Amino acid sequence: MSLKSIAVLTSGGDSQGMNAAVRSVVRSALFHGLEVYAVQRGYYGLIHDDIRQMDLRSVGDIIQRGGTILQTARCKEFMTPEGQQLAADHLRKRGIDGLVVIGGDGSYQGANKLSKLGIKTMGLPGTIDNDIPYTDFTIGFDTAVSIVGDAINKLRDTMSSHERASVVEVMGRHCGDIALYAGLASGAETILVPEVPYDLDEIASRMKENFDAGKRHSIILVAEGVGSGHEIANEITKRNGIEPRVTVLGHVQRGGAPTHNDRNLASQLGDFAVRKLIEGESGKACGIVKGELVTTDIDKVVNSKKPFNMEMYNLALRLSQ
Ligand code: ADP
Ligand code: F6P
């Protein structure tokens, strides 16, 4: 049976570019003659039947905005089989046969469950963490990296004036990509990520030697998956007597206008998801691999771990001497 109507939702932690993805899904679906609905507050809205029909104008003036006009939620009720069944029933009752879920790893788990209940689902990778396998980049990651890079530039100014060290804690959950990409781009002296073991004795003595040799600042980027930036700073002080200032960037990394890369990625992936649903694919996650748009079984995606880019990590180490 051919697809007649689809819905779109955003779920989990928001990310910059989610609005651009919603706009792309809605306008692409309308272009292909589908009815399109929006679910408010992710899976919470599905369970509570908070669903409205969209038209071309519903997604006007949002491509450049951070956050998500559909809002998002972390919904416990949806974790139960009863919650998932209720969500599927609400879609069926309205004659909606396809669903595009824009979110991270957890949201994909939810999409996988709905797919197994017979809803034709497509996942779009919306998270700043870049922790989704089978896509090189997630929507929001590029913007988060830019925000961290800008913050480091600012910190470097004041650290150099005072000849200080700076520990910067960044988000990413269990993934070190935000720290890695922002660290390479901004020349951080040390990048600590959960994927690679580190030696605090070596880091502390290198920092001391560098300051003694005339270096005027030292930036240590800590991915939250490693632990707290404050703890790392304390451990460094214990070893070399230097007292790094600590900055926890927090949710600032999730806000603000998406970069043009994120808007373009979101626009491409949103349209791709709709076209793949129309072609009859479902239970898939959309991604970009080496510049090509691809779909992968969502079951496979949620049961895999994204490989860490060791080559890039080693490059960052070599260049930060
Ligand atoms: P993200 O999508 O950013 O990783 P979460 O991990 O909070 O964010 O997941 C978002 C939502 O997806 C959760 O609040 C829950 O409703 C749903 N979800 C997460 N994991 C599962 C699961 N194993 N089964 C069903 N639903 C899930
Ligand atoms: O997944 C996005 C993310 O910002 C992670 O980087 C971070 O660990 C988490 O969400 C923070 O969650 P919350 O918004 O619930 O504080």
Tally of helical segments: 11
Query: End-to-end span in angstroms?
Result: 61 Å
The description of the largest β-sheet is: 7 strands, mixed
Report the top-level CATH class of the largest domain: Alpha Beta
Low-confidence stretches: none
Give the strand tally.
Answer: 11
Helix amount: 40-55%
- Kindly identify the CATH topology of the largest domain: Rossmann fold
- For the record, the CATH architecture of the largest domain stands as 3-Layer(aba) Sandwich
Explain this structure to me?
This protein has helices at residues 18-31, 42-47, 81-93, 105-116, 141-162, 177-186, 200-212, 229-240, 260-278, 298-302, 310-319, and strands spanning 5-10, 35-39, 51-53, 98-103, 120-125, 165-170, 190-192, 218-223, 245-248, 284-289, 292-297. It is of the alpha/beta class. The protein folds into two domains: 5-140 and 258-302, Rossmann fold (3-Layer(aba) Sandwich), CATH 3.40.50; 144-254, 3-Layer(aba) Sandwich (Rossmann fold). It has a seven-stranded mixed β-sheet with strand order 3-2-1-4-5-10-11, sandwiched between helices. Helix 4 (105-116) links the parallel strand 4 and strand 5 (120-125). Helix 1 (18-31) packs parallel to helix 9 and helix 6 runs parallel beside helix 11. The radius of gyration is 22 Å and the shape is elongated. The model has no long low-confidence stretch (mean pLDDT 97). It binds adenosine-5'-diphosphate (ADP) and 6-O-phosphono-beta-D-fructofuranose.
